[in-house]
Amino acid sequence: MNLFRLDGSFREEGSQSRAIADIVENQWTATGGGDVTRRHIGAEPIPSTYWAAAASFGYTPEEYRTELQHTAVALATELVDELVAADALLFAVPLYNFGVSQHFKAYIDLVLTEERMAPTAPGQILGGKPV
Ligand SMILES: Cc1cc2nc3c(=O)[nH]c(=O)nc-3n(C[C@H](O)[C@H](O)[C@H](O)COP(=O)(O)O)c2cc1C
User: Fold this and answer.
1) 2-34 pLDDT per residue, tens
2) pLDDT tens digits along 75-119
3) Closest ligand 1 atom to the C-alpha of 19?
4) CA–CA separation, 13 vs 125, rounded Å?
5) Domains by residue range for the chain, with CATH
6) Cα of 24 to ligand 1 centre, how many Å?
């Protein structure tokens, strides 16, 4: 059993969202949950340029695709692989300025460019996972 944990706070120390997520993670571990895969989008933000690069990849003839597009698509694949591999998903995401943080928006936007996340993709790859 694998838990995917995403932290969105830019704070390493004193972070309330991390503290709450720690409670969930500790409970997961204490009840035999197993491995935890982590991604810290607050500490290691996803560049805001990646979404447009990945979103335009499919519309760009192969010979015109840029390094940025390839890098962004590769990261999108990695991000979705993490979600698919997990049995449960834990998102510790603060509110900043009346909404989710730019870090989390950049993450979600990039994830949604991935072909497995398309509404027309076969199956619901994240269906049934507790979040
Ligand atoms: C710049 C900034 C903007 C914030 N904006 C909001 C907000 O619009 N709404 C809200 O409920 N909390 C807001 N907060 C409060 C944070 O959600 C709260 O401090 C939270 O604990 C931050 O997560 P962390 O403790 O994991 O870093 C804001 C905090 C900061 C630093």
Assistant:
1) 999 999 999 989 999 999 999 999 999 999 888
2) 999 999 999 999 999 999 999 999 999 999 999 999 999 999 998
3) 26
4) 34
5) 2-117 (3.40.50.360)
6) 20
Percent of the chain exceeding pLDDT 70 equals: 100
79 burial via Cβ count (<10 Å: 0-12, 13-18, 19+): buried
Distance of CA 87 to the CA centre of its chain: 14
Q: Which of 95, 100, 102, 105 to mutate to test the pocket of ligand 1 (most atoms within 8 A of CB)?
A: 95
| Global confidence as pTM | 0.94
- Single-letter amino acid code for the residue at 4: F
Question: Does any ligand 1 atom lie closer than 6 A to the CB of residue 71?
Answer: no
Say how many Å lie between the first and final Cα of the chain, rounded.
14
**Ligand 1 atom index nearest CA of 95:** 17
Q: What is the pLDDT of residue 119?
A: 87
